[in-house]
Write a structure and sequence with these properties.
It is built from 14 helices and 19 strands. By secondary structure, the protein is α+β, with helices and mostly antiparallel strands. Strands 13, 14, 15, 16, 17, 18 and 19 form a seven-stranded antiparallel sheet that branches. Strands 1-2 form a two-stranded antiparallel sheet. A hairpin with a 2-residue loop joins strand 5 and strand 6. The radius of gyration is 27 Å and the shape is elongated.
Length: 375
């Protein structure tokens, strides 16, 4: 049924009485029940036009009949467009819709409770509870797809001068796709920036804003307590590919190469290369999943594998190198030979894809005058 025709029917069943108080008035219906006038009219409409009724809803605020496609979900309540524009808004942190009386500075009560006095979220806060959707590039947001190699980043750093200026800058420029959390492993001026899961394309799209607008408020490389942790979706990697990653990370001959790319050697928070040479079945049988492994499978119930090897760095070239390495290594692990899980084999594979991983390619080939563009 045409929208215009439905509009005429809505106006007709209101019987020329658009007054909210009248629509809310309790009257006796044909069956002798005391009901709100709006509900009686909606029932009449449903009986007369059963196909059209599916397109309509009643606003839980003003209780007017409206089109379902024009409504908003506010904490489980149906809100029409007029009520939304006058009395509701979306929380800048979680994106949920709330009445403006239940928000402060565009932040809902739930998100305000999650923040400490420092302005940071508690360490246990899950970014996916506050930032909905996975980003895939070009501003597009979708739910998770199992086969997609999403990456979520935890960037540990310190405020350079004013702690609160750093926090406010990141929230303002990057708050749609990350949260800021406390981290007990950092000093008092430390903070952890945690992103939603994104594809490599989406990371490349969003992070330049941080480097341009926010990075000058922070510092990372000079602090030994800071690292960058990159989570990848387990569902995008077969069990065999996961086993290949484990072998690669613990192969003694690969350690120098990994340290070079990661910017640091292994330490108590990112252990690797300690188990010596083992084959994939042995790792799958015997590997002790510890939280502080360089390749961490014990991610507290999350379906991710955490790369903990990187020294924190907010220089764009180094940061993008970490992203390139993580993404490339995961793809390579999906097709590599079980008999040749070496850094040399990985570099040979990478050489055929210079445009796909420009930052990593430039780092491994410093004599290259021009960084190849992303494919």
């Amino acid at each position: 049924m045409e929208r215009g025709a439905i509009q005429e029917m809505i106006m007709s069943i209101r019987e020329g009485h658009p007054d909210v108080a009248l629509m809310n008035e309790y009257v006796t219906d044909e069956g002798g029940r005391r009901r709100r006038r709006a509900m009686i009219l909606l029932d009449r409409f449903a009986n007369a036009y059963p196909q059209a009724i599916r397109q309509l809803s009643i606003c839980d605020d003003c209780e007017y009949i409206t089109y379902t496609e024009d409504t908003y979900d506010a904490a489980g309540n149906i809100i029409c467009a007029l009520c939304y524009e006058s009395s509701y808004g979306a929380c800048d942190h979680c994106g949920d819709i709330h009445h403006i009386d239940n928000m402060s500075d565009r932040t809902c009560e739930s998100c305000m409770e999650s923040e400490s006095e420092s302005g940071l979220m508690e360490y246990s806060t899950n970014v996916l509870d506050l930032r909905r959707g996975f980003l895939i590039g070009n501003g597009e947001k979708i739910k998770s797809e199992k086969s997609t190699l999403y990456m979520g980043i935890e960037l540990e750093m310190h405020a350079k001068r004013d702690f609160y200026d750093a926090i406010e800058s990141i929230k303002y420029h990057c708050g749609e796709w990350c949260i800021l959390k406390e981290d007990g492993s950092l000093d008092s001026d430390g903070l952890e920036m945690v992103t939603v899961p994104m594809t490599l394309a989406a990371h490349r799209e969003h992070w330049p804003r941080f480097f341009e607008k926010c990075a000058h408020h922070c510092e990372a490389w000079i602090h030994d307590d800071c690292g960058i942790h990159i989570h990848v979706a387990k569902s995008a990697l077969s069990p065999l590919a996961q086993g290949r990653l484990l072998v690669f990370f613990h192969e003694p001959d690969n350690q120098r190469f990994i340290s070079r790319v990661a910017g640091r050697s292994q330490n108590d928070y990112c252990k690797r290369g300690q188990d010596g040479r083992k084959k994939i079945p042995a790792y799958r049988r015997e590997y002790q999943f510890g939280r502080y492994q360089g390749l961490n499978f014990a991610t507290r119930g999350q379906q991710t594998i955490e790369f903990r090897i990187f020294k924190s760095n907010i220089a764009p070239g180094a940061f993008n190198r970490y992203l390139d390495f993580t993404h490339a290594l995961c793809l390579w692990a999906g097709e590599a030979s079980n008999q040749n899980l070496t850094s040399a084999a990985f570099v040979a594979w990478l050489a055929g894809r210079p445009g796909q991983y420009p930052a990593l390619h430039a780092f491994l080939n410093p004599r290259t005058k021009e960084v190849p563009k992303c494919a």
